[in-house]
Amino acid sequence: MLKCGNQVRLTRREVARFTEITGFVPVDVKTREDLDEYVAECKKYYWGVSDDTKFLHYLIDRELQAALR
Predict the structure, then answer these.
(1) Range 3-15 burial, b when 16+ CB lie within 10 A, else e
(2) Are 1 and 67 in contact (CB under 8 A)?
(3) Please, what sign has the CA dihedral across residues 17, 38, 67, 31?
(4) pLDDT per residue over 9-67, tens digit each?
(5) Which domain of life is it from (predicted)?
(6) pLDDT at 39
(7) What angle do CA 4, 6, 11 make, to 5 degrees?
(8) Cα separation, 28 vs 54, whole angstroms
(9) d(CA 44, CA 39)
(10) DSSP assignment, residue 57?
């Protein structure tokens, strides 16, 4: 992720990874808050308590942490 002040820009690889994991393209993600909102919306869409849902949320969180490094 490229950062400049409050602005962020996901790299092509990050966009591809988030899209592969969630099925949703992270469009209009221009700030950290936008990215957090995108992640929250994805988790809300894939809501549940099954092991598969927990694993998907884990993958989303892991990709978020990788992007923030």
Answers:
(1) eeeeebebeeebb
(2) yes
(3) positive
(4) 999 999 999 999 999 999 999 999 999 999 999 999 999 999 999 999 999 999 999 99
(5) Bacteria
(6) 98
(7) 55
(8) 26
(9) 9
(10) H
SS3 6: coil
For 15-44, the DSSP string reads: HHHHHHHHSS--TT--BHHHHHHHHHHHHH
Q: Cβ atoms within 10 A of the Cβ of 63, count? A: 17
Q: How many residues does the chain have?
A: 69
CA-CA distance, 63 to 30, in Å (whole number)? 17
Whether the pLDDT of residue 6 is over 90: the answer is: no
The residue ranking higher by pLDDT, 6 or 53, is: 53
